[in-house]
């Protein structure tokens, strides 16, 4: 006897994408009214500085839409961008959990007028590290904005794509929708309405087929996120740790008393604790931990012998 899935009463859409790709405008289209402030691609400055939330009930189904800040496109360093993305996505998941907003589907927003770049690919790889692998992609829909600017048909455009874009499309289970977010003439109004209906149907289909994505699952990838940040921090960390270890070695040569020795040993212990915590079991900073162990254990210098 086959079981019948309960009807879906709520969908939670989380908008993910770079500034200028039409993320906020897509949120407005999905809701059926303008609530999210839209940034034009020409400025490339993210208007969304906080996590913006709006909802609407359409045909008895509640749509929760979260619009976090744009990804990987600020004036900050790559490391700061990675940390910000991790923090923003963690906040979104906590808020969804606290508000008991279920039926999460991730909308990956991409501008159909743009060339899919290595930076775009890196952005989606970062998202995979933040949310995990399989079930994240099971809950994804690839949304292409600016359909109204396309020359030729969408099917023709889609069949012409190669490389990284086709890999991304496959990861999303071929769940791809092109939308028009403008309605400044009759043709665009009709296109916007039709593409919104298609987008909602694809999201519903994704929500029904895939298992639910929860805060518990997100938390299970905490170490993956820490390792992601560490990967991008390594160059600056290596420079910093080399400098501090050299300072300790120089200070050790100036030791004249037991008190001096104990002060240096304390500095070594504090630095090693920080490195161990930052390494998080990855082994990427093992060289620096070993170097500090040698400073503590070496008996070639009288100052480090425990009398």
- N-end to C-end Cα span: 79 Å
Shape: elongated
Instruction: Tell me the strand percentage band.
Output: 5-15%
Structural class: alpha/beta
Please state the average pLDDT score: 87
Largest sheet: 6 strands, mixed
Residue share in helices? 40-55%
Number of strands: 6
Tally of separate helices: 11
Q: Please list the strands of the largest sheet in the order they lie side by side.
A: 2-3-1-4-5-6
The helix/strand order is: EHEEHEHHEHHEHHHHH
- Cα-based radius of gyration, to the nearest Å: 25 Å
Low-confidence stretches: 303-307
Task: Report on the architecture of this protein.
The protein has 307 residues and is α/β, with parallel strands linked by helices. The chain is built from eleven helices and six strands. The chain starts with 9 loop residues before the first strand and ends in a 10-residue tail after the last helix. The protein is elongated, with a radius of gyration of 25 Å. Strands 2-3-1-4-5-6 form a six-stranded mixed beta sheet, sandwiched between helices. Helix 3 (118-131) packs across helix 9 (222-253). Strand 2 (52-58) and strand 3 form a beta hairpin. It comes from Biomphalaria glabrata (Bloodfluke planorb). This is GTPase IMAP family member 7-like isoform X1. Pfam families: AIG1 (PF04548). Keywords: GTP-binding, Nucleotide-binding. GO terms for molecular function: GTP binding.
């Amino acid at each position: 006897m086959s079981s019948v899935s309960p009807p879906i009463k709520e969908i939670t859409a989380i908008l993910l994408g770079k500034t200028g790709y039409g993320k906020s405008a897509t949120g407005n289209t999905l809701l059926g009214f303008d609530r999210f402030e839209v940034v034009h691609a020409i400025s490339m400055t993210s208007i969304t500085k906080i996590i913006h939330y709006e909802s609407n009930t359409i045909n008895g189904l509640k749509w929760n839409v979260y619009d976090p800040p744009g990804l990987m496109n600020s004036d900050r360093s790559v490391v700061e961008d990675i940390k910000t993305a991790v923090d923003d996505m963690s906040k979104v998941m906590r808020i969804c959990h606290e508000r008991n907003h279920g039926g999460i589907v991730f909308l990956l927003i991409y501008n159909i007028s743009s060339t899919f770049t290595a930076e775009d690919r890196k952005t989606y790889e970062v998202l995979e590290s933040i949310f995990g692998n399989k079930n994240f992609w099971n809950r994804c829909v690839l949304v292409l904005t600016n359909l109204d600017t396309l020359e030729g048909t969408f099917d023709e455009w889609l069949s012409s794509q190669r490389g990284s874009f086709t890999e991304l499309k496959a990861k999303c289970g071929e769940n791809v929708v092109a939308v028009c977010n403008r309605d400044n003439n009759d043709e665009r109004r009709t296109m916007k309405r039709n593409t919104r209906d298609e987008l909602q149907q694809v999201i519903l289909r994704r929500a029904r087929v895939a298992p639910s994505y929860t805060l518990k699952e997100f938390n299970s990838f905490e170490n993956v996120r820490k390792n992601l940040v560490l990967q991008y921090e390594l160059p600056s960390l290596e420079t910093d740790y080399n400098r501090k270890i050299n300072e300790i070695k120089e200070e050790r040569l100036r030791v004249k008393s037991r008190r001096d020795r104990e002060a240096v040993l304390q500095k070594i212990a504090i630095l090693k604790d920080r490195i161990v915590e930052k390494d998080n079991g990855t082994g990427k900073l093992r060289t620096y931990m070993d170097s500090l162990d040698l400073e503590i254990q070496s008996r070639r210098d009288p100052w480090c012998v425990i009398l």
